């Protein structure tokens, strides 16, 4: 007889021998004698889904992460059976399923092992909560490296690390502190020059061990739910990241002003202070597109209200700011103050929209307003209600965008920092506890916010920001890396986090430039701005407890450096906008660690500092005080120093001079970098000419420029301009072909081409096979020419 005590401690359970197999179109089912079922779905030839049931029962198949627009369809599927195994073949992969253990091994068609189970799937019954803890262990391949997993404040390469996913409010977190604000259970493995990805689609607390406990084993597990993961094969890392991003979705294009420089603080109030900040930006000629209002604009921190003493006429203030080119962004938190006279609270109570504890009492927690209840954003009715709450704020008062904070959800003065685990959630018709819903709570809040903003800023495009996120939240919102600290270490952390987020499908990301907690000195602030202008989301934000953190808050030298780099960002807006277009359309990350750029160069596998901004700009921040330069690694190829135009051969470390007014920036040879004139805000100027910085290459390189109306939805009707340039350089000539798509007519008629690195003196120029007078193209020495934007072939011939 087996006693309850023996049952409780029997530990891990494993699949037994396969006794049944059947196929249903794109799904293969393998059933064991002890009731384990492996459902293997072929989404594409290179994407497989592995889903395990115990006791012959699958949970309802539901996911907040998977995009409705995911691309599916495969070219080949064949299953063979031997005495010991099943063999599954697609056009790119071979999967072996062992009959005795249900363990899998995935190879390419040449027999190279990509990923294989160690113990494989196993589970442990959870006697406290019910259900199972589900586990998977894999063999770590020789010299394997690991990347991804969102906003981890640790080295880019996760080899030897152990991390967990439980979205957590971590004020002033430190290096290697875990977990943080986001749960993105997706990682990339790289070995033998081949990449793959695994997305563990499980919303419970998840854990990952990358050869930490045992040097030859990589494992991941969850506190509940199913073992349900997607395997994505490259072999290039770029293919893995694009496929994962397609799986979980991309955002639509934001308005271009969302990519400008933004200024924030906890908090700008009263109204006179907000107006003074705006006035000073324009007076000092420092470009800025948005000013943020933190919680102090509210009446007693009640969401969707205004403090009439501090902001007596918010509609007029916002309108006046808009006339000067400023958009207004306000914060909304999830905690709703318990106040019977507060209309938002009344509506939620009347409609039963608040989360409840297991025994039916309302879940209650202290946040900024005091005791609060929390809407259940996993309930679609609650999301619809929440979206409608934005009507007055957006349509009548004129707020331009919304910032969701504290949405982990953060709860003060409790050890867990969040809601009790017995809190109940609708989970879109799949009722569950907070153990399952916690990681997606913030995601579903910002989803509701996004729907409301999208409705009420129409026909403009929505812009939303969130702190908490789960995989797939990028479909709804930009994000930042939370409450960091004004230290040099945090400058390094911000750099690593932004790269890692982009590798994890979430490119619209930035940090609190300068640090949220404590106060930077002028040098640190300048160095952080130099990094931050190369992040997709660019915002200064601080707690305000230690001093001011506006661009002019330090000495004149720092102010001038900050202005110079913010101006550079505004010049690069068409390049940045094109980056976002490719991210939105194709899932291409906006920032690329060097390992993503060249995984076959093993020197890139442990680099953290350098990254590729877009496709063709190499950036390396200076991350130490008193530095007049730094050593950096230039990836293979030839790169032009942005400041000196010196061409440098990559594939090596190099000392680069970088006083306080510069950081190392290099341009890939053959690149054509588009630039606008400096504007104080997006839309201030009517662009009369597009500058193209052209960097000579003895060979071929392609470049892209995407433009549209910078806001609104006409681009979805074909009113965009997509220019693809094909550059081909030879020792004595340069050819540039242009291929144009879309019906959008740009405001400018000409390109000004700044030519860098030409190895010859220009003798003749042909435009569309006809020679032109050099005066007609305004040839200036050997450096620049002006030509019609409508050319199809430019041929520059040397003497």
What's the N-to-C terminus distance? 96 Å
Name of the top-level CATH class of the largest domain: Alpha Beta
The main sheet comes to:
9 strands, antiparallel
Helical content stands at 10-25%
Keywords:
799 residues; alpha+beta; Immunoglobulin-like; TIM Barrel; 3 domains; nine-stranded parallel beta sheet; globular; disordered N terminus
Produce a short descriptive summary.
19% of the residues lie in helices and 32% in strands.
Descriptive overview:
The chain has 799 residues and is α+β, with helices and mostly antiparallel strands. The chain has 13 helices and 51 strands. The strands form ten sheets. A nine-stranded antiparallel sheet has the order 5-6-7-8-9-10-17-16-12, with no helix packed on it. A hairpin with a 2-residue loop joins strand 23 and strand 24. Helix 6 runs parallel beside helix 8 (434-456). Residues 1-9 have low confidence and may be disordered.
């Amino acid at each position: 007889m087996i006693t309850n005590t023996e049952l409780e401690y029997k530990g891990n359970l494993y699949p037994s021998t396969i006794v049944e197999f059947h196929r249903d179109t794109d799904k293969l089912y393998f059933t064991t004698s002890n009731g384990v079922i492996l459902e293997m779905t072929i989404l594409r030839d290179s994407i497989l889904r592995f889903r395990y049931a115990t006791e012959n029962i699958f949970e309802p198949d539901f996911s907040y992460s998977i995009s409705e627009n995911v691309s599916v369809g495969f070219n080949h599927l064949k299953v063979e059976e031997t005495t010991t195994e099943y063999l599954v073949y697609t056009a790119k992969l071979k999967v072996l399923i062992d009959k005795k253990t249900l363990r899998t091994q995935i190879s390419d068609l040449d027999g190279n092992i990509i990923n294989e189970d160690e113990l494989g799937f196993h589970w442990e019954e959870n006697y406290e909560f019910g259900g199972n803890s589900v586990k998977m262990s894999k063999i770590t391949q020789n010299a394997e490296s690991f990347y991804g997993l969102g906003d981890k404040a640790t080295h880019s390469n996760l080899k030897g690390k152990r991390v967990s996913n439980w979205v957590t409010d971590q004020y002033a977190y430190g290096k290697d502190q875990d977990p943080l604000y986001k749960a993105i259970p997706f990682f990339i493995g790289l070995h033998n020059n081949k990449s793959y990805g695994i997305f563990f689609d499980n919303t419970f607390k998840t854990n990952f061990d990358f050869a930490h406990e045992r040097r030859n084993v990589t494992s991941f597990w969850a506190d509940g739910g199913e073992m349900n993961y997607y395997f994505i094969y490259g072999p290039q890392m770029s293919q893995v990241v694009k496929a994962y991003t397609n799986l979980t979705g991309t955002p639509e294009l934001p308005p271009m002003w969302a990519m400008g420089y933004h200024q924030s603080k906890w908090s700008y109030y009263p109204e006179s202070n907000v107006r003074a900040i705006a006035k000073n930006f324009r007076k000092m000629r420092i470009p800025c597109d948005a000013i943020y209002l933190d919680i102090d604009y509210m009446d007693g921190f009640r969401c969707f209200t205004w403090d009439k003493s501090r902001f007596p006429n918010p509609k007029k203030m916002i309108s006046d700011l808009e006339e000067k080119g400023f958009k207004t962004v306000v914060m909304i938190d999830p905690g709703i103050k318990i106040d019977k006279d507060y209309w938002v609270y009344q509506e939620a109570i009347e409609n039963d929209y608040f989360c409840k504890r297991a025994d039916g009492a309302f879940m209650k927690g202290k946040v900024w307003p005091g005791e609060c209840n929390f809407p259940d954003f996993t309930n679609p009715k609650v999301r619809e209600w929440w979206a409608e709450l934005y009507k007055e704020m957006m349509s009548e008062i004129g707020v331009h965008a919304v910032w969701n904070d504290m949405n982990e959800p953060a709860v003060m003065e409790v050890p867990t920092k969040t809601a009790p685990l017995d809190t109940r959630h609708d989970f879109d018709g799949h009722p569950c506890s907070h153990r399952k819903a916690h990681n997606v709570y913030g995601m579903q809040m910002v989803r509701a916010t996004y729907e409301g903003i999208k409705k009420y800023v129409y026909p403009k495009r929505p812009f939303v920001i969130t702190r908490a996120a789960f995989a797939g939240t990028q479909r709804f919102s930009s994000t930042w890396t939370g409450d960091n600290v004004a230290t040099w270490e945090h400058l390094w952390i911000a750099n690593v986090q932004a790269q890692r987020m982009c590798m994890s499908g979430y490119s619209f990301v930035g940090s609190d430039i300068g640090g949220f907690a404590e106060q930077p000195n002028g040098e640190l602030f300048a160095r952080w701005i130099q990094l931050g202008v190369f992040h997709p989301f660019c915002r200064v934000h601080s707690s305000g407890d230690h001093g001011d953190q506006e661009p002019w808050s330090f000495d004149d030298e720092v102010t001038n450096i900050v202005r110079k780099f913010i101006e550079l960002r505004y010049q690069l807006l068409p390049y940045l906008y094109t980056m976002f277009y490719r991210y939105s359309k194709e899932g291409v990350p906006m920032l690329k660690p060097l390992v993503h750029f060249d995984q076959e160069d093993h020197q890139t596998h442990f680099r953290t500092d350098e990254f590729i901004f877009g496709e063709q700009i190499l950036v390396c921040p200076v991350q130490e005080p008193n530095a007049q330069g730094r050593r950096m690694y230039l990836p293979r190829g030839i790169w032009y120093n942005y400041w000196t135009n010196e061409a440098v051969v990559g594939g090596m470390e190099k000392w680069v001079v970088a006083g306080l007014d510069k950081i190392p920036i290099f341009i890939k040879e053959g690149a054509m970098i588009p630039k606008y004139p400096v504007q104080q805000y997006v839309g201030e100027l009517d662009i009369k000419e597009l500058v193209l910085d052209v960097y000579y290459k003895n060979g071929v390189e392609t470049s892209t420029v995407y433009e549209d109306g910078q806001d609104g939805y006409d681009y979805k009707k074909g009113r965009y301009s997509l220019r693809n340039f094909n550059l081909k350089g030879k020792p004595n000539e340069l050819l540039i072909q242009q291929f144009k798509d879309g019906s959008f007519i740009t405001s400018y008629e000409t390109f000004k081409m700044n030519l860098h690195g030409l190895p010859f003196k220009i003798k003749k120029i042909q435009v569309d096979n006809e020679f032109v007078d050099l005066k007609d193209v305004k040839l200036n020495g050997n450096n620049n020419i002006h030509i019609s934007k409508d050319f199809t072939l430019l041929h520059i011939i040397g003497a």
